[in-house]
Inverse folding.
């Protein structure tokens, strides 16, 4: 079977797309020779089919990773590890146009957004490449009879399971800290969006990584994903996706070998606009934070709380601004909003819109399909949304904004923090004291003040409460891939205390 097909990405043209499973440094077709279809969400047409990993392929990939870890990667000089990562970052920059085009083709995100994200992808890998030779233990002075030092060692073989909303960026967030710390990895892309990860696999070979150090498989959650979560020879699983699946992964980890778990899960982030905010700026950031990436963003600012003095004015300005968002063909350079990822997600979101209407929220704009084909939904704003309505409580993962009025700081903090989630939040105000006061009280891993979605390789990101466990990005993320070893040496001999 040919493991490469020629495809035609709308904003790039013809290119060769690998479709195999990337195991032990090469593309293979998988033990059961199964395949599954990849859909273009803008047209609902099949782009191609890729090889599907089963449990057996997971076993093979884990064995390859274990062997690479023990025989080569553990012994590779840290400076060489870093050099390969920097090379990979450069190769991603070299191929950025193709990668962005394929990302847009497979995921439906507008090409302008995909192009912007590519810069974050290489920057993340480059940032962590710089860390490869800067991970140190400590010496610990206890008393003169002992010499004690700590080592920061890799965990071994790590599994990574990523979602479809940011296929390349989530891959970069996972590659960076795991390889910089010297782990070997098996990553499963989302069954919705396998294409760009396979292009990165080609670059992993070109960058010179030893075979087996980083393996990338395409496959489904219930089979390949579940096999990774419950595998007895995987030391850690890192997951990004829904809270429901995160819970299942943690259970599987607990029931198998108690592998370490980090989770980056859902959110329902409060986006708070105070009376004293600059209205134009607030509207601009609220729109961006709410609707970026078709609102398929874990940190999306979907609970929009507006103080009573500017509530009506804000709604009018917000509606006007959102109606200017260009919805349509992801290949068009000016599109801001493309299709949702799948029919399933489209149907779920339309269900939430129905719930908003039937529970009595006021539909300001949108609320229906956009166009004839593709999973497009018009940007939708509900106002006067009650605190207990479904659209105010649950993660919708689609372009449906819930706006509510608040009185004062106490009122908005009570509503903001009354959520099972705690991923992100934002405050729009000109009052610095208020910004700091409210930031201190918000139960969220990220607080943006007078901006939204500023994500950076140097800034840790992750959730309070049921939005996750552990942090990605920044120096923090390295800890999730390291384990401490304390070495205690007695100096000058001597007997034990009970002799
Ligand atoms: P999901 O969490 O089920 O899928 C994400 C990844 O997990 C995929 O790679 C999938 O194959 C894998 N997976 C699924 N079930 C698994 C299992 N039992 N064991 C191991 N791996 C498994 O997300 P899904 O179903 O695509 O979307 C449902 C909802 O999840 C969305 O509407 C949204 O609310 C949320 N979501 C949140 C994301 C985030 O960035 N926090 C990303 C994607 C979805
Ligand atoms: Mg699912």
């Amino acid at each position: 079977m040919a493991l490469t097909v020629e495809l035609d990405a709308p904003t790039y043209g013809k290119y060769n797309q690998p479709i195999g499973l990337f195991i032990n440094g090469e593309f293979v077709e998988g033990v059961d020779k199964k395949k599954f279809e990849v859909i273009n969400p803008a047209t609902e047409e099949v782009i191609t089919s890729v090889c599907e990993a089963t449990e057996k392929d997971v076993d093979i990939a884990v064995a390859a990773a274990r062997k690479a870890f023990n025989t080569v990667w553990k012994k590779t000089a840290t400076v060489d590890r870093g050099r390969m990562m920097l090379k990979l970052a450069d190769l991603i920059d070299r191929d950025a146009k193709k990668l962005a085009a394929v990302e847009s083709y497979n995921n439906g995100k507008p090409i302008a957004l995909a192009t912007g994200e590519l810069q974050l992808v290489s920057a993340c890998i480059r940032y962590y490449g710089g860390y490869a030779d800067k991970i140190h233990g400590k010496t610990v002075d206890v008393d003169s009879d002992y010499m004690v030092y700590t080592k920061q060692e890799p965990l071994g073989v790590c599994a990574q399971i990523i979602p479809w909303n940011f296929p390349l960026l989530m891959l970069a967030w996972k590659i960076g800290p795991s390889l910089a710390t010297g782990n070997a990895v098996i990553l499963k892309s989302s069954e919705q969006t396998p294409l760009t990860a396979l292009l990165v696999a080609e670059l992993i070979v070109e960058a010179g990584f030893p075979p087996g150090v980083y393996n990338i498989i395409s496959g489904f959650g219930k089979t390949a994903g579940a096999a990774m979560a419950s595998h007895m020879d995987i030391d850690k699983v890192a997951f990004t996706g829904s809270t429901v699946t995160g819970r299942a992964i943690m259970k599987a980890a607990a029931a198998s070998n108690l592998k370490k778990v980090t989770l980056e899960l859902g959110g329902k982030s409060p986006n708070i606009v105070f009376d004293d905010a600059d209205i134009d700026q607030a509207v601009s950031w609220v729109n961006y934070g709410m609707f970026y990436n078709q609102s398929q963003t874990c940190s999306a600012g979907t609970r929009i709380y507006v103080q009573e003095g500017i509530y009506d004015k804000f709604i009018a300005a917000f509606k006007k601004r959102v109606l200017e968002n260009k919805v349509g063909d992801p290949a068009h350079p000016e599109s801001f909003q493309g299709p949702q990822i799948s029919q399933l997600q489209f149907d779920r979101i339309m269900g939430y819109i129905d719930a908003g209407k039937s529970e009595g929220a006021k539909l300001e704009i949108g609320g229906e399909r956009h166009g004839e084909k593709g999973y497009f939904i018009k940007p939708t704003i509900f106002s006067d949304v009650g605190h207990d309505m479904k659209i105010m409580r649950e993660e919708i993962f689609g372009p449906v904004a819930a706006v509510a009025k608040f009185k004062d700081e106490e009122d908005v903090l009570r509503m903001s923090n009354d959520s099972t989630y705690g991923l992100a939040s934002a405050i729009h105000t000109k009052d610095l004291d208020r910004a700091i006061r409210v930031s201190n009280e918000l139960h969220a891993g990220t607080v943006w003040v007078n901006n939204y979605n500023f994500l950076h390789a140097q800034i840790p990101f992750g959730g309070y409460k049921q939005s996750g466990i552990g942090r990605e990005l920044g120096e923090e993320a390295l800890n999730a891939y390291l384990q401490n070893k304390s070495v205690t040496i007695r100096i000058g001999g001597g007997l034990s205390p009970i002799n």
